[in-house]
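tokens incoming
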């Protein structure tokens, strides 16, 4: 029976973590015993809550008060339950199990429904990935629609708008952006040299006009494996132009 109880706790935990976005994010990044204990923790919480509810039901003697209205008795109900379950499982344990499953499913379902809102989804993901700066800056860029600058190990540099950050399903192994500028880093001082301006092309094609569907602009997106990214930062075109115009650095005393 001990194995059955452990499996039951793990199933409750799995139901919740598969629906709750922050829990799913953490689960995908844990391994081995850490993964088991993460699932077991949530399952144990729901079992405790279900046990407390059953204790309250017993304390107020709810079955004895309610069953006469259903034309049955507690003894008859126990016999019926025993016909469908092992004698080793008491009606109280069965009720705790059903309540725990219900609590895990309802709590996870409500959380999943709430995170259908893109703003709430991004906010919860950002809180969950506080320990990963790379994912954090991409999520911040997606929320604020700021341009980001990506420098690759080939010194190629792309500047653009982040379109998707799939962090809850697995480790972030690639990033999708719509490029607005591109260039390279100089060999000697790694200064950014811009060569192409995609933004003007989008304007000429009318892809930036109000009411234009984003799907058309998404046709220009590029997917970059994160293992080839050596530098990420936000990019401000006005700041870049200002710094280019003031190349001379005054000598210090």
């Amino acid at each position: 029976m001990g194995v059955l109880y452990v499996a039951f706790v793990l199933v409750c935990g799995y139901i919740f973590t598969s629906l709750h976005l922050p829990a799913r994010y953490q689960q995908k990044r844990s391994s081995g015993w850490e993964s088991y204990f993460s699932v077991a923790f949530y399952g144990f919480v729901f079992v405790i809550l279900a046990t407390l509810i059953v204790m309250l039901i017993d304390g107020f003697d709810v079955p004895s008060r309610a069953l006469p209205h259903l034309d049955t008795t507690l003894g008859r109900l126990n016999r019926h339950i025993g016909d469908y379950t092992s004698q080793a499982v008491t009606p109280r344990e069965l009720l705790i199990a059903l309540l725990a499953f219900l609590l895990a499913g309802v709590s996870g379902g409500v959380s999943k429904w709430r995170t259908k809102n893109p703003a709430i989804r991004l906010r919860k993901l950002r809180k969950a990935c506080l320990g990963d700066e790379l994912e954090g800056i991409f999520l911040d860029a997606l929320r604020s629609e700021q341009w980001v600058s990506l420098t690759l190990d080939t010194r190629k540099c792309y500047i653009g708008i982040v379109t998707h950050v799939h962090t809850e399903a697995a480790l972030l192994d690639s990033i999708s952006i719509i490029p607005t500028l591109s260039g390279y880093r100089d060999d000697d001082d790694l200064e950014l040299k811009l060569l192409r301006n995609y933004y003007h092309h989008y304007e000429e094609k009318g892809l930036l006009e109000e009411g234009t569907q984003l799907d058309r602009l998404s046709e220009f997106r590029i997917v970059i494996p994160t293992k080839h990214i050596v530098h990420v930062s936000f990019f401000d075109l006005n700041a870049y132009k200002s710094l280019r115009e003031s190349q001379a650095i005054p000598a210090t005393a």
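note: The chain has two domains: 2-116, 131-245.
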